[in-house]
Amino acid sequence: MHNKIDVVIMAGGKGERLMPLTKNTPKPLLKIGHKPIIEYSTDRLASFGVTHINITTNYLSEQIISYFKNNNPHNIQFNYIKESKTLGTIGALKLIENFKNDYILVMNADLLTNINFQALFNHFIETQGDALIATLPYNVAIPHGVVETDGEVVTDLQEKPSTTYYINAGIYMFKKECFHFIPNHTYYDATDLIQNLLDKQKKIVNYPILDYWLDIGKPADFKKAQSDIKHIKF
User: Fold this and answer.
1) Which of 138, 133, 144 is nearest to 193 (CA)?
2) Residue 98 sits in which domain range?
């Protein structure tokens, strides 16, 4: 996998929901246990043989650059892309000119996960998708009987139905040509690109994550991560 993909970690966000923790520290550098959130991802990628990682930065970017300059046990070659303005979750990828491979893994910097990146890549190749979204099953149960109607006529009755949705895990894989559709110097999210690709009849595949995954967005998530990290296997 390592010599077939490029990797981009998106670390430009302000982490406003975690204030005041993020007042003087960028969210990717907040420590979970003994090391920063982002380092769990860089270490895991290194364990799959990845040696070169692009990091898009904006808020307090110098701290991220300085951290990895002093903490790089796997000798990863880091390339930093500094946004001059906020470009959404994927707009900054248009600033990267040195993609060497046809497949690009893109992920958020605030994720704590022991996802199997090799299995994700294999799934993408086997399904011959143009893009892939890693997802988590999310079950919604309605605690009442549901009455389905057509006008005033009852057509069905379901007792306490439940539905499984798939939520976006903030980890994507794209064929390089998909990036032609990212506009220049424009605020553009990964979901905008996926929607654009869907509109153009491109094949988007789903990779359900069966491993541990936590998006550290709110103080409750941060607290959960501190507890979970004691017994997750990375």
Assistant:
1) 133
2) 5-228
